[in-house]
Amino acid sequence: MSRLGCFAVIVCLFWGTVANAEPLRVVYPAEAGRDTANAYPVQLLELALRKSGKPYEMQPFQESMNEARARSILEAGDGNLTVAWFGTSRDFEQRLRPVRIPMYRGLLGHRIFLINKAKQPLFSAVKTVADLHPLLALQGQGWSDVEILAGAGLNVDTARYNNLFPMLNGGRGDYFPRGVTEAFAELEHFGLNNPNLAVEEELTLVYPFAMFYFVSRSDVALHDAIRDGLAAAFADGSFQALFESHPAIAGALKKVRLNQRRKLTIDNLLMTPETRAIPAEYWYDGGQAGTK
């Protein structure tokens, strides 16, 4: 057989292998009462998979679940759930396989405060992180943010999530740091029964905080497809375009006005060296100058 003939056979075999490759099985968590298919994490995941060039089949898990259950099923690695997304921690990165490109570009580490509206003058006087030390922050039980805030010398009290809003409304805490995509939605939902609640008007508390896609430790193929697809989408600008245009993000940023707020910066002592090494261009800075 000629050299050209051999080459033709190799090419045919290669494309035959690609055509017959098993599609990646992508099963993601669904949440009760939410339009999961149009949620930003799902749309970004689908963008990454398209950009990866790998064949895939994508579907939601058959039942709604909370984060703890999703982590447990994913860690089992039985294929019932193959990908989920969480705010990262050292523990999660050891038990699961993280895709170390921050889905929200670190935006969830930009925290604004729910407060009792009568306390706005107190926060208007805050100029540095040290000015927050006498005040009491509220957080949910078991949240990683508790250790981050305490590590910066801030006072923190915890309670069940639904109890935090009446606590704040009744003055049993000074502020409740929330992600910029969370605060106004929570005010709308919980403010009806807690009329003293308001979104603080002048401050942003910022710390490095990434939400990652996670797969089971054994699912290298899906991990690599998501990682390579996200990197390709970032390189061609389609990642940024989705980030800037998705209603859940664009609407929140318009309301929050990050570039008009005083930025207070603290460290995240829970962040692993590998996550700290993520290139700077992946992180959103909000156009703010900051103080510590």
Automatic annotation (TrEMBL):
This is Solute-binding protein family 3/N-terminal domain-containing protein. Keywords: Signal. Residues 1-21 form the signal peptide. It comes from Magnetovibrio blakemorei. The keyword Signal applies.
